[in-house]
Amino acid sequence: MQCFVVQSDEIEGRLDPNLYEPKYKKLSTNLKNIKCQELGNIVAFSNETWDQKTFFGDKFPYIEISEIDVISGEIRNIIYYDKKEAPSRARMVLREDDIIVSTTRPHRGAISLIDKSKDGFIASTGFAVLRELKTNEIGRDFLFYTLKADFCLNQMLQRSSGGNYPAITTEELKKIIIPLSPLSTQTQIIEIMRSAFEHKKQKEAEALRLLDSIDGYVLNELGIKLPEDEDKMCFVVSSEEVQNNRVNVYYYQPKFKEVGKALEKGKYRIAKLKEFVTKIHYGVSIKNVYVDEGIPLLRILNIEPNKIDLTEIAHLEESKRQEIGSGFVYEGDLLVSRSGSVGIVAVVPKEADGFAFGSFMIKFCVTDEVNKEYVSIWLNNKISKLFTEREKIGAIQGNITISTIENFLVPLPPLEIQNKIADEVKRRISETERLKAEAREIIEKSKKQVEGMILGDN
Length: 458
Known about the structure:
The chain has helices spanning 22-32, 39-42, 140-147, 150-158, 170-173, 183-221, 254-264, 321-324, 372-379, 382-391, 402-406, 415-455, and strands at residues 36-38, 43-45, 59-63, 79-82, 90-93, 99-102, 111-113, 122-124, 127-133, 177-179, 270-272, 277-282, 295-298, 303-304, 307-308, 314-316, 334-337, 345-347, 356-357, 361-366, 409-411. With 458 residues, the protein is α+β, with helices and mostly antiparallel strands. Strands 2-9-6-7 form a 4-stranded antiparallel sheet. Strands 4-3-8-5 form a 4-stranded mixed sheet, with no helix packed on it. Strands 12-20-17-18 form a 4-stranded antiparallel sheet, with helices on one face. α6 (183-221) runs antiparallel to α12 (415-455).
């Protein structure tokens, strides 16, 4: 527990102790030693909203907070929704050169500068939209990089309220202090950050090339030559070819038959996953009431191809343990996403032993006759992804069932070949992680250099 004293003339109208912590007081003192202004005096916040009826045809482009890269600010994915299925939060109209700032957990840095290609797109109301600059003492790019600096993100956290998911109001966001560095310094800072992000992109491109090489390596080791998998516009399906009561056209694309033949021509026997699965069941369906400490819970965002990401773990109350029942994972179990990004598979590491797992995932265990890592690697291969996409059910958000997973096809080379493939793929993944870490380090070093220039190393 931390104890500190706040003078009456320091009270801003809020009695939240977090606002007055000594570390924030020190930050405020440092900022006030240089030329600065509150954000609300520097830039106008936009209130332009969309009525969810006009402007677009059937679909509209939507930007959600989760799609913002918190390091670079890049928008990783644009979601296209039918207007009739528009989320209630899809209302903020974006314009070229807007800066959008997530007001939910703002200290994460989900902040992006909108380019010309996204002019007119729609964003979540969870963003504050910064539009017109009120002064010529600051450039837009400099403001963007400054908002992502730690001293700004810490101010956002200081002025947020809430427990596990702190949020900041627009009025509180307007109060954060922005340094007004000389224009020559601003130009220098912009160049430093642009150069850093360019180096980051190069490292990430190298990592991506290495990851992309994995599929080819695995298929080559298994003697599988992947045929062309383009969709056909016209093809004929006879009545006896209808399977599993599926009548959608995509299910019978000729490419699936061709890929199936390629599998059969490989070096090794093809087995169904259920031949060596010992246990399989869905995750826990429980109300998402998270606490600061308690039972760690793996969610869909924690699962990546061949990796469990433990950087953002939610927690459930300890009292929920009995309700969770069998919804726990242990080292060596395999998890597969069954909804959203369907079919992503990873082996549970030692660090996640005993974690609960959510209902959008399925856990399964396999016998010692197969290498768990090999199974994960194969199920994340492009061929498995192709068949998973085929088997999805549901119109809006496709998902797969236990029955679908049990019938996944897996080439079964001797165990020593499985081990060899698993070791080489793990080596390549480890190398990509090293490159990504280097990319992050480049940005962090540049941020520290820039913050020193802005704050004068106070």
